[in-house]
Amino acid sequence: MPPARVVESSRDMSTRQLLLVLGCAACAGSPPSPTSATPTPPRASAEPAPSSPPTPELALPMARLDFLRGVWKGSATGLAPDGSRYQVTQQERVTPGLGGDVVMIEGRGVQADGATVFSALGIVSFDPSSQKYELRSYAQGRSGTFELKLTPTGYVWEIPAGPTAVIRYTATFDGARWREVGEFTEAGQPPMPLSEMNLVRVEDAR
Question: Which of 192, 189, 197, 158 is nearest to 6 (CA)?
Fold first, then answer.
């Protein structure tokens, strides 16, 4: 998924970015207190701990997202906040989590000089009660929850952008290729292109 945009007031705000899809923060444990006895380190396990089994009612809906799994890399282009065009090298890592109950999408964009300009995290889940997929995104201190709709060739998701406007992202998959286009659409107006992402799968999911 390309960097998403959050719009606060129709077209004037369509160039402000919420960089979505996708980096992950690691959790670290606290060191032992200086006044406490040094604990005996646990014995290393020769085998990795098995993952938890998927929830039965989620197994089939989440399996429909298997086409996303893997490591993807390519280019992303679009409009910067100042209206200029940008281009970055984008990588997306898509893996199952919680035994397959969710799909995690971790991504980052890198400039030509090697500097990482964004990282973000998206989590896709399925709600059996509504029979809908949900995309929860985190990036640059912002977060949002959006409905993800599957299509015969990929998916579509939208960000509300005003009373009669949305930002729509349409993704298509052709084997090992992932293309995603973002457009600002307002009633009575032609769509305005915002971004385009073209990736290829460089590694299968583990």
Answer: 158
